[in-house]
Amino acid sequence: MRIAIIDLGTNTFNLLIAEATGGSSYNILLSTKEGVKLGEGGINHKTITDAAFQRGIEAIGRHYERMEPYKVDKVMAFATSAIRDAANGRHFTDTLKQRFNLDVSVISGDKEASLIHLGVKQTLTFHDKRYIILDIGGGSNEFIIADDNQIFWKQSFKLGMARLLEKFQPSDPITAEEISAVEKYLHEELEPLFENFDRYKPEIFIGASGSFDSFVRMLANENLLPPLDGATSHIIPQEVYQKLHHKLISSTKEERDQMKGLEPVRRDMIVLATVFVNFVLNKLGLLTIYQSDYSLKEGAVLEFISQS
């Protein structure tokens, strides 16, 4: 059986095509994405702008063209922060139904976090050790404290990079004062995270998909990490991440355009992403990043085939 998962995120629409091979196993046939910036210009006003709306529809059309040769048996689509919070989010999903006969499940932040955990634990195993997962999105960020067997706490925060970019509109390059303002805001908004970190005391920090994928590709291109070679998880040591962090916060948009491994759709948001990650790492005292390529869409595949 062939399954297609479409993850309608705030920055990108991701497509995963997998073939179930029995039990809870599957092979990935295609994994690709389309940059859409669905939250651009409207996310903090709870709307999808006309331009973003059109980009999203066109991206789904291209995904359907990619799916055609694979003759998939099942298509599942999940919409997250930008669509679930937008006043015209229902109009967007209705348009997808009319044009492509695509049924979109608009999932809660809680469900999103559960699928992320299910995806991540396919690539990294720590047995009984507790870890904290961060998935950085455009509309929301999900934190999950868990081990391989259970989730202890999870929460979705409306602190995605599209929201922060629109709220703070940083200079080019970002200034020290602007970084301090962002960190002050995060300190206030992330209080539930700090409380539960102290309660459950996870030992390991995992960054899932999105910005963390960009960090890994950029570092590999600079030979600061080993060649990726198809691995689905990587370790970013503290000193290596700090080199990238300082490079990004001192960079201009024009300089980021030339950085290998950084997707154009993340050029404007990657600076705030690294400010966010650096703040959280320092606050929690967890310095090494374990990165996972797998996240929501891989979790959705596993959940589906395990229940079939």
Describe this structure in words.
- This protein has 308 residues and is of the alpha/beta class.
- It has two domains: 2-107, 2-Layer Sandwich (Nucleotidyltransferase, domain 5), CATH 3.30.420; 110-292, 2-Layer Sandwich (Nucleotidyltransferase, domain 5).
- Helices cover 44% and strands 23% of the residues.
- The protein has helices at 50-67, 81-85, 89-100, 109-120, 161-168, 176-189, 191-200, 210-221, 238-249, 253-257, 270-284, 296-307; strands at residues 2-8, 12-22, 25-35, 74-79, 104-106, 131-136, 141-146, 151-157, 204-208, 233-236, 289-292.
- The strands form two sheets. A six-stranded mixed β-sheet has the order 8-7-6-9-11-10, sandwiched between helices.
- Strand 6 and strand 7 (141-146) form a beta hairpin.
- Helix 1 packs parallel to helix 3, helix 4 (109-120) crosses helix 12 (296-307) and helix 6 (176-189) crosses helix 11 (270-284).
- The N and C termini lie close together (10 Å).
- The relative contact order is 0.16.
Strand order of the largest sheet: 8-7-6-9-11-10
Provide the CATH architecture of the largest domain: 2-Layer Sandwich
CATH class category name of the largest domain: Alpha Beta
Written as H for each helix and E for each strand, in order along the chain, the element string is: EEEHEHHEHEEEHHHEHEHHHEH
Rounded to the nearest angstrom, the distance between the terminal CA atoms is 10 Å
What's the count of strands?
A: 11
- Report the principal-axis shape: globular
Named CATH topology of the largest domain:
Nucleotidyltransferase, domain 5
Low-confidence stretches: none
Helix content: 40-55%
Radius of gyration: 19 Å
Mean pLDDT: 96
Count of runs of 4 or more consecutive helical residues: 12
Number of domains: 2
The class by helix and strand makeup works out as alpha/beta
Largest sheet: 6 strands, mixed
Oligomer: single chain
Determine the CATH superfamily of the largest domain: Exopolyphosphatase. Domain 2
- The amount of beta strand, in percent, is 15-25%
